[in-house]
Write a structure and sequence with these properties.
Layout lengths: L9 H13 L4 H19 L2 H22 L6 H10 L7 H7 L11 H14 L4 E8 L2 E8 L2 H16 L5 E9 L2 E8 L3 H12 L3 E5 L5 E5 L1
Helix pairs in contact: 1-2, 7-8
Amino acid sequence: MLRKNVSISDAHLKLLEPLLKKHQGNLSAAMRDIIDFTGFVTENMGSLETAKDILKEKNHVREQIQNRIYGVTIPLTMFRWLLASRKYGLPPMCETLQLFAPHNDINVYDTNSLNKIINEELSILNWPTTVSVDSGDDQISIQVTGTDPEINNFAAILISMYLSNNKNPQKIIKLLLYPSSISMKFSNASCSEDAQQSIYTYLCDNTEKMPDQNGVILVKAE
């Protein structure tokens, strides 16, 4: 058995108090616990620094949810049920904008930034969706892809509401429904109200759904 003298500051002794209490003041036993835990972290995460970074990132995400949108975690199956059972309509604009609060003045024509922001903010909610953004001919194309059509539709509504409230409001001019995705095309709207009306027209329950030859559904206003 190797014996060594170890110098420990009062601050570090304070941190050791829970372990010392566990081992009834036995410092050697407390140190063995620390060494075992360090070995476990290093083996599974590579280093203590990596473990710290992961923990900080998780805490940051938790704080974002709590501070910005008062997030509540519910099982995915329950979330699907809530979406399927909700009355058709749009969520409050103020609640939607909270989700994208740090980025409400984004240049929507900067599609790389728009793509990054939308995916980052939705990832905080841990929904099984991904979003791709493209542009051309003064129009913005957005595709929402995921495993559940109800969640895809709700994510598409939130994104559309976000774009409708931009300093350059965007309205939906075309919408295609695929089995596992929703494809939307946007163009400039005369005002936010015009843009929001397009969301009712294409994403709410007052639409005519027309399947094309490939089984894709083209949504048209009645």
